[in-house]
Protein backbone atom coordinates (compact mmCIF):
# COMPACT_ATOMS: atom_id res chain seq x y z
CA UNK A 1 0.00 0.00 0.00
CA UNK A 2 3.02 2.33 0.22
CA UNK A 3 3.06 4.58 -2.82
CA UNK A 4 4.67 7.92 -3.56
CA UNK A 5 3.48 10.68 -1.28
CA UNK A 6 4.26 13.21 -3.97
CA UNK A 7 1.64 11.72 -6.29
CA UNK A 8 -1.02 11.99 -3.61
CA UNK A 9 -0.04 15.52 -2.65
CA UNK A 10 -0.01 16.71 -6.24
CA UNK A 11 -3.33 15.08 -7.00
CA UNK A 12 -5.02 16.73 -4.06
CA UNK A 13 -3.46 20.15 -4.57
CA UNK A 14 -4.13 20.11 -8.31
CA UNK A 15 -7.79 19.33 -7.77
CA UNK A 16 -8.39 22.26 -5.45
CA UNK A 17 -6.77 24.95 -7.55
CA UNK A 18 -9.37 27.39 -8.75
CA UNK A 19 -12.30 25.92 -6.87
CA UNK A 20 -14.51 28.93 -6.15
CA UNK A 21 -17.16 27.29 -4.01
CA UNK A 22 -18.44 29.33 -1.12
CA UNK A 23 -17.94 28.11 2.42
CA UNK A 24 -21.15 27.37 4.23
CA UNK A 25 -21.03 26.60 7.93
CA UNK A 26 -20.69 22.84 7.96
CA UNK A 27 -21.56 22.47 11.65
CA UNK A 28 -25.09 21.69 10.45
CA UNK A 29 -24.02 18.64 8.45
CA UNK A 30 -20.68 17.51 9.82
CA UNK A 31 -20.33 14.06 8.45
CA UNK A 32 -16.60 14.05 7.87
CA UNK A 33 -14.25 14.52 4.97
CA UNK A 34 -15.76 12.61 2.03
CA UNK A 35 -13.42 11.15 -0.59
CA UNK A 36 -15.21 9.83 -3.67
CA UNK A 37 -14.71 8.44 -7.14
CA UNK A 38 -17.42 7.68 -9.69
CA UNK A 39 -18.62 4.46 -8.07
CA UNK A 40 -17.58 4.63 -4.40
CA UNK A 41 -16.90 6.90 -1.46
CA UNK A 42 -15.13 6.84 1.88
CA UNK A 43 -15.90 9.22 4.75
CA UNK A 44 -13.04 10.13 7.06
CA UNK A 45 -14.30 10.71 10.62
CA UNK A 46 -12.45 11.62 13.83
CA UNK A 47 -12.28 7.92 14.75
CA UNK A 48 -10.05 7.20 11.74
CA UNK A 49 -8.01 10.42 11.79
CA UNK A 50 -4.45 10.21 13.12
CA UNK A 51 -3.88 13.96 12.74
CA UNK A 52 -5.46 17.02 11.14
CA UNK A 53 -3.88 20.45 11.25
CA UNK A 54 -3.96 23.77 9.44
CA UNK A 55 -0.96 24.81 7.35
CA UNK A 56 -0.27 27.28 4.54
CA UNK A 57 1.28 26.95 1.10
CA UNK A 58 4.11 29.20 -0.12
CA UNK A 59 1.60 31.83 -1.25
CA UNK A 60 -0.05 31.88 2.20
CA UNK A 61 -3.21 30.04 1.18
CA UNK A 62 -4.72 27.80 3.88
CA UNK A 63 -4.73 24.03 3.65
CA UNK A 64 -5.53 21.12 5.92
CA UNK A 65 -2.90 18.41 6.43
CA UNK A 66 -4.57 15.09 7.27
CA UNK A 67 -3.36 11.55 7.91
CA UNK A 68 -5.40 8.44 8.68
CA UNK A 69 -4.93 5.75 11.29
CA UNK A 70 -3.48 2.50 9.98
CA UNK A 71 -6.16 -0.16 10.51
CA UNK A 72 -8.48 -2.44 8.51
CA UNK A 73 -11.52 -0.22 9.12
CA UNK A 74 -9.69 3.05 8.41
CA UNK A 75 -6.72 3.18 6.03
CA UNK A 76 -7.27 -0.22 4.43
CA UNK A 77 -10.95 0.47 3.75
CA UNK A 78 -10.11 3.93 2.35
CA UNK A 79 -7.43 2.43 0.10
CA UNK A 80 -9.68 -0.32 -1.25
CA UNK A 81 -12.66 1.99 -1.70
CA UNK A 82 -11.07 5.12 -3.20
CA UNK A 83 -7.30 5.55 -3.06
CA UNK A 84 -6.46 2.52 -5.23
CA UNK A 85 -8.72 3.62 -8.10
CA UNK A 86 -6.06 4.59 -10.65
CA UNK A 87 -7.57 6.31 -13.68
CA UNK A 88 -10.63 7.58 -11.83
CA UNK A 89 -11.18 11.15 -10.66
CA UNK A 90 -11.07 12.05 -6.98
CA UNK A 91 -13.52 14.41 -5.32
CA UNK A 92 -13.20 15.64 -1.74
CA UNK A 93 -16.07 17.31 0.11
CA UNK A 94 -16.69 18.59 3.60
CA UNK A 95 -20.31 19.31 4.41
CA UNK A 96 -21.61 21.38 1.49
CA UNK A 97 -18.09 22.50 0.51
CA UNK A 98 -16.37 20.93 -2.51
CA UNK A 99 -12.62 21.01 -1.79
CA UNK A 100 -11.36 18.96 -4.74
CA UNK A 101 -13.29 18.14 -7.88
CA UNK A 102 -12.20 15.72 -10.56
CA UNK A 103 -8.53 15.34 -9.68
CA UNK A 104 -7.13 12.33 -11.59
CA UNK A 105 -5.71 9.48 -9.53
CA UNK A 106 -2.47 8.70 -11.37
CA UNK A 107 -1.11 6.11 -8.93
CA UNK A 108 -2.41 4.30 -5.83
CA UNK A 109 -2.19 6.55 -2.77
CA UNK A 110 -1.27 5.61 0.80
CA UNK A 111 -3.97 7.12 3.06
CA UNK A 112 -1.71 6.88 6.13
CA UNK A 113 0.75 9.34 4.59
CA UNK A 114 -0.01 13.00 5.32
CA UNK A 115 -1.85 14.70 2.49
CA UNK A 116 -2.63 18.35 1.89
CA UNK A 117 -5.99 19.69 0.81
CA UNK A 118 -6.28 23.35 -0.13
CA UNK A 119 -9.30 25.19 1.26
CA UNK A 120 -10.98 28.51 0.58
CA UNK A 121 -10.22 30.29 3.85
CA UNK A 122 -8.85 30.01 7.39
CA UNK A 123 -12.28 29.49 8.94
CA UNK A 124 -12.95 26.42 6.82
CA UNK A 125 -9.45 25.05 7.44
CA UNK A 126 -9.92 25.41 11.21
CA UNK A 127 -13.41 23.90 11.06
CA UNK A 128 -12.17 20.78 9.25
CA UNK A 129 -9.10 20.43 11.46
CA UNK A 130 -11.07 20.88 14.69
CA UNK A 131 -13.73 18.41 13.60
CA UNK A 132 -11.29 15.68 12.56
CA UNK A 133 -8.68 16.06 15.30
Automatic annotation (TrEMBL):
It comes from the Bacteria. This is Lipoprotein.
